[in-house]
């Protein structure tokens, strides 16, 4: 077996990618180290140390022990899981309809979708729509918000166009209707794009904080990302440690607030970090498939 030739360009590209990876990997590991460090020893951390100073879970106990944080975490999970599921379903079914050759008015519909993708509505218009639908301060406002992303819809259409028409025609001859075709043939064959588009939607739903802070006004319906911004960016410590029942046997004043911030950020990152290993192997093939016609 002939070994691969190592060129200067490949070496430089490898070094560049390694440095780029380190710029993302080192800060994340440093956050974990700071969050896991003991409050009495966390001041010993210097720069981007990767190992915690002592092991303590007190920062996570403080953050997760706050009922407001627990409620916000469950709200974020609900919005992400339910919202992603609905987004995938309606994006796929819209892509299926728009890829039918006998669809009347397909061109005007596509022009309309591209126009609204380029000229997005402002926050005032979106707020008034949510108000008219009586969805303000409801988790469903974030679940239903931007149910279909036009860019993702176009990507899904490219995948569905690759499904042989003869396969669908054979199913029609056997008596299958559109819903049967969609559920029993299209959805299983579109597994890779479903996972890819699903990851895009999940990340967008999980990380959305600006619209959440506008549409969700009560503390009962707040999400983790809003609390994270209040605590980390705006330095509002009352949002995190203001509850009177937090760790009654410990003095919260002795805790290091930079470690509490790190623990809060880690808690917000963990769900997405768990999602990546599951879907990452489908990511590249999912984006590139259908892009080249033979």
UniProtKB/TrEMBL annotation:
<keyword id="KW-0472">Membrane</keyword>
<feature type="transmembrane region" description="Helical">
    <location>
        <begin position="12"/>
        <end position="33"/>
    </location>
</feature>
<dbReference type="InterPro" id="IPR000515">
    <property type="entry name" value="MetI-like"/>
</dbReference>
<keyword id="KW-0812">Transmembrane</keyword>
<dbReference type="Pfam" id="PF00528">
    <property type="entry name" value="BPD_transp_1"/>
</dbReference>
<feature type="transmembrane region" description="Helical">
    <location>
        <begin position="142"/>
        <end position="160"/>
    </location>
</feature>
<feature type="transmembrane region" description="Helical">
    <location>
        <begin position="262"/>
        <end position="283"/>
    </location>
</feature>
<keyword id="KW-1133">Transmembrane helix</keyword>
<dbReference type="GO" id="GO:0005886">
    <property type="term" value="C:plasma membrane"/>
</dbReference>
<dbReference type="InterPro" id="IPR035906">
    <property type="entry name" value="MetI-like_sf"/>
</dbReference>
<protein>
    <submittedName>
        <fullName>Putative aldouronate transport system permease protein</fullName>
    </submittedName>
</protein>
<keyword id="KW-1003">Cell membrane</keyword>
<comment type="similarity">
    <text>Belongs to the binding-protein-dependent transport system permease family.</text>
</comment>
<dbReference type="GO" id="GO:0055085">
    <property type="term" value="P:transmembrane transport"/>
</dbReference>
<feature type="transmembrane region" description="Helical">
    <location>
        <begin position="77"/>
        <end position="98"/>
    </location>
</feature>
<keyword id="KW-0813">Transport</keyword>
<feature type="transmembrane region" description="Helical">
    <location>
        <begin position="181"/>
        <end position="203"/>
    </location>
</feature>
<feature type="domain" description="ABC transmembrane type-1">
    <location>
        <begin position="73"/>
        <end position="278"/>
    </location>
</feature>
<feature type="transmembrane region" description="Helical">
    <location>
        <begin position="110"/>
        <end position="130"/>
    </location>
</feature>
